[in-house]
Amino acid sequence: MTEKTVEIKNLSYSYPDKTDVLSGIDLDLFKGESLGVIGPNGAGKSTLLLHINGILRGKGDIKVLGLEMSDKNLRQIRSKVGLVFQEPDNQLFMPTVFEDVAFGPINMGMSKDEVDGAVREALSKVDMSDSVKRLSHHLSYGEKKRVSVATVLSMSPEILVLDEPTSNLDPKHRRILIGILKELKISKIIATHDLELVSETCSRVILLDKGKVVASGNAADILIDRILLEAHSLELPHFRGFLAKADK
Ligand SMILES: Nc1ncnc2c1ncn2[C@@H]1O[C@H](COP(=O)(O)OP(=O)(O)O)[C@@H](O)[C@H]1O
Ligand SMILES: [Mg+2]
Questions:
Q1: Cα 211 to ligand 1 centre (Å)
Q2: pTM for the structure as a whole
């Protein structure tokens, strides 16, 4: 059987002022697989993702690379899960781009040369090499998103968790990001409204609405189901390959 990298069983979560944000979520991520998490605003996608490296701790069982989510395992889990937040301002907290991208590698105990190499490679992947000395808070929103992706790529994570990674990217840099994701053969979870992104990078999809999994299956089946998508405030991807199949 294929190895599971993330196992979530019966996860429920409430914020102090908003109950049942997640209810009875089951999710498995297999080694090397990319899973899309889709659903309307407020469905609970970001809340679900924040459980995968233990930022939020709901009720239920979570295992990451065979490790139970517990205080004892938190540090180890976080060294293996690269989570890119929906809001880049939550990701970037150092003065410069270099320091933000170097933060993870330094914490992992890499040598100065290794840190420099990891930062350079990660920034080059997202086409931000020219900005290495810039102040993170001076970047545009899209540039911040790209640097946010670099802050986790620099750590060579075993699992990549991305929350709305293409929001506010221009077409060229959205395309570059999709290329990076296709090339990276590690396990990935991508929460997004960008169903074209899902169709290009994910083999499997779960559809969340009001904190529950309302559908799950092959991306190719779910992304052509107009009735299902529209019932949950989404729409068919607008490009031809999918439309041709969908209109049959
Ligand atoms: N920190 C928070 N405190 C209280 N409620 C929150 C918080 N974050 C999100 N919520 C609420 O939880 C629900 C799910 O939000 P979220 O996980 O961000 O959904 P999505 O990412 O699918 O848009 C929404 O109703 C949202 O308003
Ligand atoms: Mg969200």
A1: 10
A2: 0.94
